[in-house]
Amino acid sequence: MIKTSRTGASYSRRQALRMMAAGGAVGLFAPQLLGKPAFAQTPPTAPTGRVVVGLSQEPTVFNPLMAHIEVDDGVNFSMFDALFRISPEGVIVPNLALEVPDQTNGGISADGLQWRIKLRDDVRWHDGQPFTAEDVKYTLELIVNPDFRAWRTTGHALVRDITVVSPTEITWRMEEAFAPYLNFLTETFMVPKHVLEAATDLNENTFNQSPIGTGAFKWGQRIAGDNLELVANPDYFGEGPYIEQLFFKYIPDNTVLYTQFRSGDIDLVGQAYISPDNYAEAATLPERVVTLVPKTSVETFYLNVEKPQFKDRAVREALYLAIDRQAIIDALNYGVPTVTETFMPKMSFYYNPDLPKHEFNLERAAQMLDEAGWLPGADGIRVKDGVRLSFANSTTAGAHLREQAQQFIQQTFAEIGVEMTIANLPSAVMWGDFWTLSQFDSAMSGINFLIGADPDVTNRFHTKAITAKGGKGSNNAQYSNPEVDALLEEGSRTFDPEARRAIYLKVQEIIRHDLPFLPLFANTSVFGQKEGLQGFVPNTNTRTESWNTAAWYWA
Description:
Layout: E1 2-3, E2 10-11, H1 13-22, E3 50-55, H2 70-79, E4 84-86, E5 92-94, E6 114-118, H3 133-143, E7 159-166, E8 169-174, H4 181-185, H5 193-196, E9 217-223, E10 227-232, E11 245-250, H6 254-263, E12 268-269, H7 279-282, E13 288-303, H8 313-321, H9 325-332, H10 362-371, E14 375-376, E15 382-384, E16 387-388, E17 390-394, H11 400-414, E18 419-422, H12 427-430, H13 433-436, E19 442-447, H14 458-461, H15 482-493, H16 497-514, E20 517-530, E21 533-534, E22 553-554
Parallel strand pairs: 3-11, 3-12, 17-18, 17-19
Antiparallel strand pairs: 1-2, 4-5, 6-8, 7-8, 9-10, 10-11, 13-19, 13-20, 14-15, 15-16, 21-22
C-alpha cells in the first residue's frame, strides 16, 4: 500500500497508477499547495523588493493562448491563472477552480464526457472587473475560433455545449473522452471576455502588448530588446505576491548571463540557465545557491522531414550514427546531461527503457548511405536523384554550447559526405514563424514534449498538429505516421494507466525507429539564485522556472 504524507489515505496499486496517470508518479508522496512558501522563514505582510530574472531569450508573446515559447511562460504564469495548476510533485491542484473535478466528486462523468467546474467567487481581473464563468466560456471558444491563431487546439476541439450555469459554475460535454484534458487545462490560461470581445482583430490588438490577467503580477512596462517589468497585484486572491517588482532581463549571450549572475546583477538565472561549462565554478560562489535539476526536456537535433534531404529514413539513421553524442555530453557539457533515446522523461511512468541504444559509427553511417543510393558527387557531397545531402542547422545565436555542438557535428558529418551549414538567428526570429511554420532545414532545440505530466504527445507528433500544413499544434518536424496517429488517438481515449502505458511504449518505439528528431541528451538544468531568495521551487512539470513567482520573497 502507498500512503500520502498529508492525508494518510492509503491506495491500492491500481488507484496509485490512476493518480500517476492524472499527474505524476512522485505526486503520491509529497503533495504541496501552490503559492505557499516551503521554507521556515516568514514572508512579508506587504509586497517589497524586486527580483531580477535573467533570460537568454526574449519574451515577446503576451497573449498566453497564442503560439509562444518557454520564456514567454514565465510572464504568463505570473500574470494569468488557469483553472488548475500542476505542482512540482505532479499533482493537479485548483487554481481558479474550487476543486479538481474527477469521477468520484461528480466533476467528470463515469464515461469522461460530462464535465462540471466550480469556480472561485473572489477573483478579479487586473482592471477590477470580476472573473466569472463567462470568461471561461469565452476562453475555450476563442481557442477553437478559426480566425484566431491559437497555440493548441488539441483537446479543446472536443469541447461541446459549454453552458454557464452561474457566475461560479460551468459545464460542457466532450465529443469523446480525452484523458489528458485535465493536464492541458493546467496550461490553458483564462483571458478576459470583457476586454477581448471588443477587439476588431483577435490576433493583433492592444491586449497582446499590455495584457490583463488575474495573476499575482500586473503588466508594468516593456523595453523591447532589453527588459520587461511586472508589478505586484495587491488584490490577488491567492497567497502573495510578496515582492513588489518582477523584472525579466534579456541577456542573449549565455556567457554574459552567467557573468551577471556571478556579479549579482541578476538574482535568478532563468532559461537557458547556467551553462554546464560554468557549473563547477558557480557551485563555489559565495552567497549563491546552485542546484542540478533533471528536466523533462530533451536536447534535440530536429529534422524537417518534409525537406527532400530527410525524407529517406536511411539518411536520418546515418546522421544519428554520425553524431558523437557522448563526446557532446562529456566534453562540451561537462557530463551534466544524461543520455536518452526518447522524448519521454526518465522519471515518467510511461518511459520506455528498452529502445535501441545510440552508437557513434562513421563507417556504418557511410555504408548505410551507400546502400541507400546516396553517393559522393564531384565535390564529395553525397547526391541522390538530384538532391544534394546539404542542409542548414539553426539555433539561437549566442547559445555557445549549442554553437560548439554544431561545429562538432558539422565536422563529423563532413567525414561521411554530408554538408551542414550553420545559420543561427536571434531568438525572436529563430522561435517565431521560422520554427513554428517549419521554415528551417534542421534545428537544435531543447524541447519539453509533454503537457504537464501526461504522456500524450499528440501536439508534437500527430499529423493534424503540423501548423505548416494548416494544423494546430507543435509538430514542427512535419512528422506523419498513420500508426502513430492511431495510437495517439487511442491513448487520448484511454483512462486506465496500465493500458495507456502499453500505448505510449509503442509510440516511443516507432518514433525511435522513424527518427524525426535525433535525441542528443536529456537536459539537466543548472539553477542559480541568490542565497536570500525564498519560495523558489523548481517544477519539472512546467516549462518555466517562474511558475510560482507569487511565492517568492527575500529573507
